[in-house]
Design goal:
- Four copies of one chain form a homotetramer.
- Chain A is 21% helix and 33% strand.
- In chain A, the strands form four sheets. In chain A, strands 10-9-21-18-12-13 form a six-stranded antiparallel sheet, with no helix packed on it. A six-stranded antiparallel sheet of chain A has the order 17-16-14-11-19-20, with no helix packed on it. A five-stranded parallel sheet of chain A has the order 5-4-3-6-7, with helices on both faces.
- Chain A has eight helices and 22 strands.
- The longest helix of chain A is centred in the N-terminal third of the chain and has 18 residues.
- Chain A has 341 residues and is an alpha+beta fold.
- The N terminus and C terminus of chain A are likely disordered.
- Chains in contact: A-B, A-C, A-D, B-C, B-D, C-D.
- Chains A and C meet through α5 of A and α5 of C.
């Protein structure tokens, strides 16, 4: 019975005369329902929190000290920080150093800008604890919380009275000429293939689910998550993608072919980008700006949606909020109105 | 019990320490599963087929005559066509005129380009029968079948041995100053608001799920389906969107604010675009290029995913096919390689 | 002798072995010399000044009253204004109404934004008096003077102690099917051909010096001056052009062909844009947003540099100033720096 | 007297009431006259010709052999080629090897694509002999001649019966932290500053005639000639610039600020692009894709129009030809017309 149900889900019927509409199915989930809300639910009280702050920012440092003290003294939490942060907080000798980003952390608190959240994610190659991000920077796509309300907001979070948005990551594997995977990384914003110092445009073969699509002549190629659509992909001409859309963006960088526009793909595909074996130059790949690696001829990068997304705690689940935040962050209403066309 | 299940779907749990991963849920459907396949399944043999052809194209006319004859003589199908097509086919007196695009049509056959498919859809405001489109034009995003194989392919379709892709439509309602809906249309490609003959940029207030997002100063605004992403939205700078993605595109046309980039939204939202009551000019709206209507101050257009999508019969379900067809149709590999940067 | 010199200018020699460099000629003027400075030089004291102000702006109105009084009382100038401005200045009964923008005006003073300067120019189809523009708006590409220093700055201007920049206008003629010119307008920013309310893309034939170049399928076409490069052309994707460059910009609006990029042409060419006689729709033309006219099939617009440029009085002649003002007006340094690519 | 004339040229008068128009001056040369024609005029018969061909192209090699034989046997010309070309032409033992691109070459013949012309120019840091370019590649912006007519065309050239277009080069100097110039190169297409392998956006200070304009956060910056506007700058979003326009293009590559659009400057300016002394990374510079050099903090590149332009022999002087060739090379009429907007 279960088997049959599955089959029906996969191959819904679309009938002729007697059909009143497409039958309810994934159609409802995909198209009609708002992207799912995830309620943060604790099986037991969270006890271990990792705190991370913006570098070289006195306000963030001071706030982190205050916050950590409150967590330890008032909420009996064990607070972890990385070595560099600990150096800035000599007065708090009972903060633990985070030596190993393993499964024992219950929650991450970020005090900084979007870059701080990006850095926090990068420490967790697999399961990422929920992230509460306080805005201490100027870009706030990922940092919805204000520090002045931290007690109120964290009390809600610790009691499971809050929601999280799931943000996709991409799992990117470097594959060598013999087909062996040599590296795997999770990216939160984007994976970039570029030509590095080569005077030649990079020539990259693109595959989608093992089907050869096209050869791209360009400075490079970006494959971004929806989260990353507000970052480098945007500068390269990509559209802005709502983070709840199950999508990957394929954005060429300064392509030689002027009609090669950014392409938004379903998150279910596997992309492969390969340096052709007859290429005149190698290419380079980097993952959220890190782990830069040269790809010699015949090497490729395989990209698919990761098993390990990032739950970010949010103040509100409304889709329009993100759209509105674009208008604010990108100064859409800033340029002065002119009279005539 | 049902209630509880629903709650869990809506608010999945995202747990701390003991959590091994985001729990299986819509996550799987949204992100990991390929967009659903729909098998064409007939409760009874299809008996009524509507045929439509490109205007002023002799090859299409001749082919339509051959095809109709075969359907009637060999397959005992009742064939319908519109008045104009009938004039071109005087020899086939037993084709019926399609007077009313009601529920009795089982299947649509298109002989033309993408425009012919667009026209066919426009005749069915509600339930659209499955469409089999033969390519007699040069753009073939929507026309996968070749006429020379028509007997083989149609036999498969009539026996239910084929798959369809569901393509979204948008339901667009014109709302007057008093909040009354005065028109409703289904669009397959896009709804466009523009300034018409006004010398002033249009000033449009944009709402997402009733939240005011921003005021757009521009020549106009396009809200497109993924299907429409290869049409007008592309010329206005929008990205290309895979038709299986549950998305709407919001593309400003020549916006005054240079940072106002196209935005891809989940298909679950309702957008509203309004001519402000203090606007210096009215705006115009058109639906797939038709039903052009002036919007005076205070009027708006409300846009959401339609209950009446379009099932298009496909030769293959592979996602990469669409991506590859972009490369072909847009001549990505056409411009000649240059030596140096 | 004169004749010979002219010939040499036209056909400079470019010699082989014995040539030390391209011989001095127009080459120097065109490429090596900064764009010419024009000193404002009065044969006799200026006595008639036309003042113009932004609509519905109390500060501009009050300032205009103060300025006009000073000009009349202290500098014995006859001040002219248009009818609407006079209504706002009932206390100044001795301001004359400008009935006819003929040759008798010595100087124009603008109190407003760039739109006010645009409007002032539009009143003078032929010779435009020098314009001194005070910034009362937010865009200041054309309005370099601050009102608080008006006495000091105007004393300099009236004594001929200042420089002007020459800004080109384009002379645009509407030509009917029989080849007769039916209208001629001077544009300061741009001439726009668009499709108006037509659901079809406009199809326009483009000629350069009577040579057919291409057919453009687009929402329309902008031909802009360098001055106009910061206005509508910019929203349509055109580059920014320094106003001293002897150039015209041809910018397609949302062209169907994705490789159709804006083109910058020498100011010496004559462009003609024609609605083909087999076009499925007419087009519309407007001149700096005014005089909107329908172009039926076979009609065209002819565009060349005008004999009647606009001298705008400037505070400084440095080319870098314009470039810097772009950075300020377009908020180039506004968006926040992000950490990684 | 001469002095006074010069002054008047620099500071033309712009008078009020009595002025009938801007006085004739550079205005005529800049705006009204077509870009100058240069007639190729030989003081003595050209005797030394340098031939260059596309690499690894058998047709070009065979044609070069035929052409060289004709030049030597029929026209008594001494033919020079570079070492690599000589290896491909063992049968022509009397071709000289070009060891030193000094002043003795009268004419250059190119058999290849635009890249071959680019390479030929790069061999002549100062005076460039006139170039006749035969099209053996696919891009022909710089290669107007067809080989099958070579005898007829070269006879005209050798007799001085032809015209040349002057194409600007830019003189680019690398300046170190102490203000010393360490390298100088002539570029025909563009000079590019980029971030190389740095994960950070390059941060570059831009100066125009020693005035600080803005800091650019981007992948890099292109400063191109009009000739180079059809190359890399085009992929980065720059407009197409007619080669006779006295202009430089400043095109940012994927700028962080979305409003930072390409800027066209008069050829008379000097641009300086500097790696700030507090930059977090160095940058790289390359000149027509060559001489790649790292720029550490405090270093800069100074860019101005070169004293050593490139005379390219043309078949026609019409400005429209270039515009038309854009339409052909960029496939403006290739994408298929769609029915509705």
């Amino acid at each position: 019975e279960n088997e049959e149900k599955k089959t029906e889900t996969d191959t819904n019927r679309c009938k002729g005369e007697h059909q009143s509409s497409i039958e309810k199915s994934d159609y409802e989930i995909l198209y009609r329902k708002p992207p799912s809300k995830i309620r943060l639910e604790w099986d037991s009280r969270p006890t271990k929190i990792y705190v991370i702050k913006k570098w070289h920012d006195d306000t963030a440092t001071k706030s982190l000290a205050e916050l950590s003290k409150w967590l330890m003294d008032e909420r009996s939490i064990t607070v972890y920080a990385d070595k560099d942060a600990l150096k800035d907080l000599p007065q708090l000798s009972n903060i633990e150093e985070l030596e190993d980003a393993s499964h024992h952390i219950d929650l991450i608190l970020c005090l900084g800008g979007d870059g701080t959240v990006l850095h926090a994610c990068s420490l967790f190659e697999e399961n990422v604890p929920p992230i509460v991000a306080f805005n201490f920077g100027s870009m706030g796509f990922l940092t919805p919380f204000e520090f002045k309300r931290y007690k109120e907001d964290l009390n809600s979070v610790l009691e499971g009275q809050c929601y999280a948005k799931i943000r996709l990551r991409l799992e990117c594997s470097v594959v060598d000429e013999s087909g062996n995977t040599t590296q795997t990384h999770q990216v939160f914003n984007e994976v970039v293939l570029d030509r590095g110092s080569s005077p030649y445009l990079s020539s990259l073969n693109c595959y989608c689910d093992d089907r050869m699509i096209t050869n791209v002549q360009a400075d490079g190629v970006i494959v971004a998550t929806a989260t990353g659509s507000t970052a480098y992909s945007l500068s390269a001409g990509g559209s802005l993608i709502h983070p709840q859309l199950p999508a990957m963006l394929f954005t060429p960088i300064c392509p030689h072919s002027l009609s090669f526009r950014p392409v938004v793909m379903p998150a279910s595909v596997t992309l492969k980008i390969e340096v052709p074996s007859d290429s005149s130059a190698s290419a380079f790949v980097s993952f959220d700006g890190r782990h830069r690696t040269e790809l010699s001829k015949g090497m490729s990068v395989s990209i698919k949606v990761s098993n390990w997304p990032v739950p970010t705690v949010v103040r509100t689940m409304e889709i329009g909020d993100w759209f509105h935040s674009l208008a604010v962050h990108l100064n859409w209403n800033q340029r002065v109105q002119q009279k005539s066309k």
